[in-house]
Amino acid sequence: MSVLVGKKAPKFVAPAVINGEEIVEDFSLDQYIGKKHVLFFFYPKDFTFVCPTELHAFQEKLAEFEKRNVAVVACSTDTEQSHWGWLQLPKKQGGIEGVTYPIVADTAKTISTNYGVLAGEYQYNDEGYLTANGPMIAYRGLFLIDKEGVVRHQIVNDLPLGRNVDEAIRMVDALQYFEEKGEVCPANWKQGEKAMDATFTGVAEYFSEN
User: Fold this and answer.
1) Is 75 a catalytic residue?
2) What is the pLDDT of residues 116-175, one digit of tens each?
């Protein structure tokens, strides 16, 4: 598992489904550089149980991300055709109909490998045959990428553990507050609360008031 915080987000060009219905062959996060922050998240598999709860949860909060000029992009190791089929299935039937943000198809598993979230690896056995050790699907990785294409926050959950979308929004707020004000955000900081000047005087002042 790699730590990408402080580094450029790995580049890729891959198929994706956008707007819930259109398949494009050359989707890339490069389109957002200089324009938007990106919340790029991985999930294990289409047509499963925990995954649709996450994808719907991000959709339900999509307006909050858009208000903050953040692009939400999902990715799994399924094909773009699988994504498209899942998008046509209603929520009551376990589908993700209504999800409009892009869903990338990492069929070659190179994107999840480069982001350090692939559960498993390829190896050769004693007979020289290429085998897979592990399920070869993505952990629940989430990466907050700034407008310069640098990863500023990441979190990786094991396969059974769904994420907290409100926490993802809080991290966006914290990053954008720091970028705008130059002040750092203490534990459990929320938008509208006091942050601190990262100097001895600023820290002392913060703790004297809290």
Assistant:
1) no
2) 999 998 889 899 988 889 999 999 999 999 999 999 999 999 999 999 999 999 999 999
Neighbours of 164 (CB within 10 A): 13
Please report the DSSP string for 6-57 in residue order.
TSBPPP--EEEEETTTEEEEEE-GGGGTTT-EEEEEE-S-SS-SHHHHHHHH
Phi, psi for 151 (deg, rounded to 5): -75, 125
Query: Among residues 14, 17, 39, 51, which one is catalytic?
Result: 51
- What is the pLDDT at residue 20? 96
Q: How many CB atoms lie within 10 A of CB 143?
A: 25
175 residue type, one letter: L
The domains found in the chain, sorted by start residue, are 14-162 (3.40.30.10), 164-210 (no CATH)
